[in-house]
Each structure stands twice: as structure tokens, then as C-alpha cells.
Write a structure and sequence with these properties.
This protein has a domain of 84 residues: Elongation Factor Tu (Ef-tu), domain 3, CATH 2.40.30. The chain is built from 2 helices and 12 strands, in the order ββααββββββββββ.
């Protein structure tokens, strides 16, 4: 509430009266309920590309000086020449595998359970998913 002071009577009067001024009430906006048909369209839809692809690994580390990612392979294998799709919170690109390394040695194929080094064209982050196209 805002308080406003007002003088009473003449200048000699020392007593002051406090007048309270009421603020207009503001109505809160009511949340609209969506129709069932509209609620379905508002629901988050899974990315169709991710749903159709097979997840083969996850990024565990990124080396910015050499543009390489450490990828833990969890399914199948990955060969030089295969195409991969890397998707994360801020990452989203497709790329052809040009080089695979294991313990600083170039290998033609990575197998399930190995943590390989993969040359990438842009920055990836820990936790990004790697899909085989």
C-alpha cells in the first residue's frame, strides 16, 4: 500500500493525518487448458533421424587442438569410411569417418567396448551421442 501524508487545517497545526490510497486490484491471467488434440501436437516429438538410427557410442572427451573426440563404443563396431551422426545439447552434425585411433595408433576398425579417437570437424561435448548412418 502506498501511504500519502496530507496536512490538516492551517500551517500551525503540527498533527498530520495519514491517508491510505487503495491500489486497483489486478487480475491474474488464468492458464488456458489445451484441448486433447492440441495437447498432443504440443507434446515433445522425438527426433525422427535419431529414432531411425542405431546408437553406437558416446563421446567421453574432446581434444580441441587436434579436433578429435574420444568415443566409447557400446554397440557393434565402426570402420573408416562409415558415416556417423553426432547429436548433443548443442552439437548436431553428420560426418564421414576419416581416421580412427587406439592408443595413438591408427586402426581400420573400432570394436565394441573400445574407447577410440575419432577425428571430427567441429566441437563435440562429453555425453554427445554417436549414431551410425
Amino acid at each position: 500500500m502506498v501511504k500519502k501524508r496530507a496536512k490538516v487545517g492551517n500551517k500551525k497545526a503540527k498533527a498530520k493525518k495519514i491517508i491510505k490510497r487503495a491500489r486497483p486490484k489486478v487480475k491474474k491471467a488464468a492458464k488456458r487448458k489445451l484441448s486433447p488434440k492440441r495437447a498432443k501436437s504440443k507434446a515433445k516429438k522425438p527426433d525422427t533421424l535419431e529414432a531411425s538410427l542405431e546408437k553406437i557410442g558416446e563421446v567421453t572427451h574432446y581434444f580441441p587442438h587436434v579436433n578429435a573426440a574420444a568415443v566409447k563404443l557400446i554397440k557393434n563396431g565402426l570402420k573408416v569410411g562409415d558415416s556417423v551422426y553426432i547429436k548433443g545439447h548443442t552439437t548436431d552434425f553428420k560426418e564421414k569417418v576419416l581416421s580412427i585411433q587406439l592408443d595413438h595408433a591408427t586402426i581400420p576398425e573400432g570394436k565394441k567396448g573400445q574407447e577410440i579417437g575419432l577425428l571430427v570437424k567441429s566441437r563435440v561435448r562429453q555425453g554427445d551421442k554417436v549414431y551410425k548412418i
